[in-house]
Automatic annotation (TrEMBL):
InterPro entries: AAA_dom, CooC, P-loop_NTPase, ParA/MinD_ATPase. Residues 9-170 form the AAA domain. GO terms for molecular function: ATP binding; ATP hydrolysis activity. GO terms for biological process: negative regulation of cell division. Signal peptide: none annotated. Pfam families: AAA_31. GO terms for cellular component: cytoplasmic side of plasma membrane; cytosol. Gene3D superfamilies: P-loop containing nucleotide triphosphate hydrolases. This is CO dehydrogenase maturation factor.
């Protein structure tokens, strides 16, 4: 497996939109194949990318508890369901984790899924993981190796502090993070200065994306935001960020 890129941050900050732009940038710059993993239980990365999702891994997990066909082992069943959950796009594949666990024990199903996912990821040069809002996936150590961590915030203090808390949690976990940046999204006018906590944690790794009315228009009309025109302000600025940080992450990987 090649480079692993993970995104985290408070809900509503544009994290999934940025994930879509990362995937688009990777493909357009010849960095493929890409595996996109939608790890948010409120799955909508597929809408950003403009592809349908009919099955999720949580569907497979639920079915393993009661619907494994007679004569089929659970690992073969789960491998079949994973293949059915994989959505093929242009230069990328997408797999959605789906809703959280229901009542009962999911240890066996989760262990199987984890093993199958690890095997699947080895087939791709780039892995992009759109995490759920908050810190759940990081605290469960579902990503033990991250080459580039994009923490996304809006210009609010709550959003910035949420990004700081995730950064502090990641620092305390036994996981490797090669390169970490903060992307402050939906900025009308950059502030005179960032809070001290933010400066201490991210230093010169703080980047700004403008509030782009074209992005809001695409979202309102239900158009995939990954298909924004190349001259859209948010696309230009996002690509400028990726031009700088991706080669750094690749060199360190």
């Amino acid at each position: 497996m090649g480079l692993t890129i993970a995104l985290g941050g408070k809900g509503g900050t544009g994290k999934t939109t940025l994930a879509g732009l990362v995937i688009r940038y990777l493909i357009e710059s010849g960095r493929k194949p890409v595996l996109a993993v939608d790890a948010d239980s409120n799955s909508n990365l597929n809408e950003v990318l403009g592809v349908p999702v009919e099955e999720t891994l949580s569907d497979a997990r639920e079915m393993m508890k009661k619907d494994v066909p007679v004569g089929m082992t659970k690992d073969i069943f789960m491998e079949m369901k994973m293949e059915q959950s994989l959505v093929e796009g242009d230069g990328f594949d997408l797999i959605a984790m789906g809703r959280p666990e229901g009542p009962g024990c999911y240890c066996a199903a989760n262990n199987l899924l984890s093993s199958l996912l690890d095997r699947l990821m080895k087939n791709y040069d780039y892995l992009v993981i759109d995490n759920e809002a908050g810190m759940e996936h990081f605290s469960r150590l579902t990503q033990k190796d991250v080459d580039l961590l994009l923490l996304v915030s809006d210009p609010s203090r709550r959003g910035l502090m949420a990004a700081c808390r995730i950064a502090q949690l990641v620092d305390s976990l036994p996981m490797r993070v090669g390169h970490r940046i903060l992307v402050v999204n939906q900025v009308q006018e950059p502030p005179q200065g960032w809070p001290q906590d933010v400066r201490d944690l991210f230093g010169d790794g703080i980047y700004v994306l403008p509030a782009d009315p074209m992005l809001a228009q695409f979202d309102m009309e239900g158009k995939p935001t990954s298909q924004l025109p190349a001259d859209a302000a948010v696309v230009r600025e996002a690509y400028a960020i990726f031009d700088k940080v991706l080669p750094q992450a690749e060199a360190a990987a």
